[in-house]
Specification:
- It is a single chain.
- Among the domains are: 127 residues, no CATH class; 199 residues, Alpha-Beta Complex (Isoleucyl-tRNA Synthetase, domain 2), CATH 3.90.740; 99 residues, Isoleucyl-tRNA Synthetase, Domain 1, CATH 1.10.730.10; 62 residues, Ubiquitin-like (UB roll).
- The protein contains 27 helices and 32 strands.
- It is of the alpha+beta class.
- The model has no long low-confidence stretch (mean pLDDT 93).
- Helices cover 37% and strands 20% of the residues.
- The chain binds ligand ANZ and zinc ion.
- It comes from Campylobacter showae RM3277.
- Its main location: cytoplasm.
- Its EC number is 6.1.1.4.
């Protein structure tokens, strides 16, 4: 063959990308009778350039998509852009560029970058979440949810930066200061819209069971903890008479409720603790019932976010009031404490320092009594800390000797019988506040009317779009200052009204984009989804993304799926059938990041070696779930392998199908080469469909190629190329398609039968044991008779059998020969 077989990635990659694009090879088909696979990598934020994390994410998804396409599936493998959000506004402030322009320029650039990687995305299904057509249906969902009571408006305490005039997410508060301007963050009550994710708490928890074995167990545990279901007792502490008088001022306060998951420890209560926001604390503060210094300390805690309080030392003080223990009648002092959360349970706790760590820390600091009411079920307790495990009740008249489980139920029963408390279930998960005082987001489609109050925009008026002419300074919300946009007619009475100027949390957009891809672009104009196609494609068969989304995004998306199902838009209960969380890309042991200066730019790698090398390295360097350490010489290695593959292909016969080979007649090296090739083939289904250990498949292909290079049979080489190119096509699609076109006219790519004969061994490797002791091994032809094998064994074992009497010789089929000897 005289063809020039120099590997020139730039040339062939461009060529194939154009062919794929021209033929529309990656567009999903509308034939719903075909078996389908929906493969989805999490869509990117258009920050400007793609990074190695993207390359990893999209290469994994692409390999799967290409694999399933080869195997006859109708594949949906879409991409889009999660394009609303803060960075666009920050760019606007810094570079005086409009967020929209910045965003869409970035999208164009990144789309080009993704194309150079040869990713098999559908082009027709691409969208950006800031597109008005996307906003339109997002607002429709918001209104439908509002009408159903799944969206509501309330005032709540939020992190507020006075300087920037905006709410900050917990993640944007650094050491109590605004991450952007550095001013102190305060806690402020602000009205906003909330999504009732708590309505779905139980279902979100229950359905985690269906995901077992299909999602990483770590993610399931994180979601379970976040939902945080617990059951226990709620009861009311009565204030004693004196305390009632202290609080007497307005509406009578008789006592307060507490929630405990450990009613079995009730005899160990040594104080009660209230959240600083508790109404009793407020009453004392407002009534001037506390010393100035005490009031000051409480106000300081009030100004901290829950997160900061959690991070700081336990703090609090005695409030000068007492309650009565419901079982013993003892006097229990009431404290205010920074570790009691205002919005969990009743915002108050019965404190049992002996058996709760936080109560213990607090009691130790303030010298409060510690009463032991549980002992370990087995062994001794060494003390010096709280005994938090379940055990056996002690010092507890009603329940002495019972296990903690039994005691818990017995106390609940008693409280219920006496009508002084009840069994309750609590969830940690909170409703999702989605209001943001920002410009670059989807406007919340609500109108405030003087007469009608809060009114949803009419569906036919959607989308409510952003005005382009705004001043973005970073102070306050530009929408709030845009008079002509803001003032509208009330959708209900036609009177003077004002638009809601808050926009939605961008997690709102990423909570349903996967379902949007499942309808085609013609549907998008008119409806959120086309029922037939969305029911065909959903749910996502394989979702791929970073572990950093283990809770928020994945939980919100699960919630949306269920809420949209109940609104009649979708069918499935869960959006993502299987989830793969990819590990981070590191360099020198650290996450690649601009600030650490250890970034490797994908563009540079593609420019130097081509996309196939980048893809091969990324999938070869580590299993996808594990961290991946960047390694320049391994990149070189990947490149060299592709060169070898390319050069070696000159010895391959051009043909349209796998040559027939008479295996038995081949020499040892040739048989070995075939075995290695078929070993790789045998592995491949598991790799692509089950465990995603692409690295082992690539290694198997490399070994196979080496074995092929060590022999010279053209049929064996041809067969090897046919198979290896098939196996590697999802990973290095440009090289594989190029060679396959030359050698096999791209004839393909059907399922290749695994031939058993290539795994049959010519010779047996047998062990020799003498009196049960292993002495060595020997080789015998597979075709040898038992007698021939024994004869061979005697020869090989001559050293140990010399001048000995053989009493018995036993051949254990295929394994070993044992000699029993005397002397
Ligand atoms: C007494 C007790 C004794 C408790 C004991 C624990 C161990 P989970 O499981 O997370 O639901 N608690 C109740 N409301 C609280 C609030 N608003 N802020 C902070 N802590 C609160 O936790 C329930 C337990 O957390 C409750 O059970 C209560 O302390 C505390 F040996 O009551 B426990
Ligand atoms: Zn009105």
């Amino acid at each position: 063959m005289s063809e020039n077989l120099k590997y020139e990635p730039a040339k062939i990659e461009k060529k194939w990308q154009e062919i794929w694009s021209k033929n529309g090879e990656f567009e999903p088909k509308d034939d719903y009778s075909l078996p389908k696979k929906y493969i989805l990598s999490m869509f990117p934020y258009p920050s400007g350039r793609i990074h190695m994390g993207h390359v990893r994410n999209y290469t994994i998804g692409d390999a799967l998509a290409r694999y399933y396409r080869k195997h006859g599936y109708n594949v949906l493998h879409p991409i889009g852009f999660d394009s609303f959000g803060m960075p666009a506004e920050n760019a606007a402030i810094k570079h005086k560029i409009h967020p929209k322009i910045w965003t869409y320029e970035n999208i164009d650039y990144m789309r080009g970058e993704l194309e150079t990687l040869g990713l098999s995305f559908s082009k027709k299904r691409e969208f950006a979440t800031s597109d008005p057509l996307y906003t339109k249906f997002e607002q429709e969902f918001f209104i439908k949810m509002y009408e159903k009571g799944l969206v509501y408006r309330k005032s709540a305490v939020v992190n507020w930066c006075e300087y920037d005039q905006t709410v900050l997410a917990n993640e944007q508060v650094e050491d109590g200061c605004c991450w952007r301007c550095g001013n102190a963050v305060i806690q402020r009550e602000l009205p906003g819209y909330y999504l009732k994710i708590t309505d779905y708490a139980q279902e979100l928890l229950d359905d985690l069971k269906c995901l077992e074995g299909k999602w990483p167990s770590q993610v399931l545990t994180m979601q379970e903890n976040w939902i945080g279901k617990s059951f226990g007792l709620e009861f009311k502490f009565e204030l004693d008479e004196e305390s009632k008088q202290i609080l007497e001022d307005g509406e009578q306060i008789e006592g307060f409720g507490v929630f405990t998951t450990r009613p079995d420890t009730i005899y160990g209560v040594s104080y009660a603790a209230l959240a600083p926001e508790h109404k009793i604390v407020k009453r004392l503060l407002d009534g001037g019932k506390l010393e100035v210094a005490k009031a000051e300390r409480i106000r300081k805690i009030l100004n901290q976010s829950p997160r900061e309080r959690q991070a700081s030392e336990k703090d609090g003080l005695f409030l000068g009031i007492n309650v009565v223990h419901p079982l013993t009648g003892e006097k229990v002092p009431v404290w205010v404490a920074n570790f009691v959360l205002a919005d969990y349970g009743s915002g108050a706790v019965m404190a049992v320092p002996a058996h709760d760590e936080r109560d213990y820390e607090f009691a130790s600091k303030f010298d409060l009594p510690i009463k032991w009411v549980v002992k370990p079920a087995q062994g001794e307790f060494e003390g010096g800390k709280a005994l938090t495990e379940y055990g056996i009740s002690i010092n507890s008249p009603l329940i002495n000797g019972l296990s903690s489980e039994e005691a818990k139920l017995k106390i609940i029963e008693k409280f219920e019988a006496d009508k002084i408390g009840k069994r309750v279930v609590n969830f940690k998960i909170r409703d999702w506040g989605i209001s943001r005082q920002r410009y670059w987001g989807a406007p919340i489609p609500m109108v405030h009317c003087k007469c009608c109050g809060v009114v949803p925009e009419k569906i036919e008026n959607l989308p409510v779009t952003l005005p382009d002419d705004v001043q973005i300074t970073g102070e306050g919300n530009p929408l709030d200052k845009h008079e002509s946009w803001k003032h509208v007619k009330c959708p209900k009475c036609g009177g003077e009204a004002v638009r809601e100027t808050d926009t939605m949390d961008t997690f709102f957009e990423s909570s349903w984009y996967f379902a949007r891809y499942a309808s085609d672009e013609k549907t998008w104009q008119e409806r959120a989804f086309d029922a037939k196609s969305v029911n065909y494609w959903m749910n996502v068969d394989q979702y791929i993304g970073g572990i950093e989304h283990a809770i928020l995004h994945l939980l919100y998306a699960r919630f949306f799926q269920k809420a949209l199902r109940d609104l009649g838009y979708l069918r499935d209960d869960e959006p993502f059938e299987r989830l793969l969380t990819q590990g981070m890309v590191l360099k020198d042991g650290k996450k690649m990041s601009k600030s650490k200066g250890n970034v490797v730019d994908p563009d540079d790698i593609i420019h130097k070696y081509g996309a196939d090398t980048a893809r091969l390295f990324i999938l070869f360097a580590a299993p996808p779930q594990k961290e991946l350490e960047w390694n320049d010489s391994a990149v070189e290695g990947a490149f060299r392998f592709l060169n070898r593959l390319y050069e070696r292909s000159s010895g391959v016969k051009r043909c349209m199908q796998i040559p027939q080979i008479a295996h038995a007649n081949l020499s040892k090296e040739k048989k070995y080469a075939r075995m290695k090739v078929y070993e790789a083939l045998k592995k491949s289904n598991d790799v692509y469909e089950e465990n995603f250990t692409f690295n082992t498949l690539i290694a198997a292909c490399m070994e196979a190629l080496n074995a092929v290079n060590a022999q010279d049979n053209q049929d064996v080489t041809t067969e090897a190329f046919f198979i290896i190119l098939n196996l590697l096509e999802p990973i290095v699609p440009h090289v594989a398609n190029e060679l396959s076109e030359r050698l096999f006219s791209r004839a393909n790519f059907t399922k290749i039968e695994i031939l058993d004969e290539v795994f049959e061994k010519d010779s047996l490797n047998l062990a020799i044991t003498v009196n049960g002791k292993r002495r060595g091994e020997f080789e015998a032809p597979s075709s040898a008779s038992d007698d021939e094998i024994l004869a061979l064994a005697r020869q090989s074992a001559a050293k140990w059998l010399e001048r000995k009497e053989i009493i018995k010789q036993i051949y254990v089929n295929g394994k070993l020969v044992n000699f029993v000897i005397k002397g």
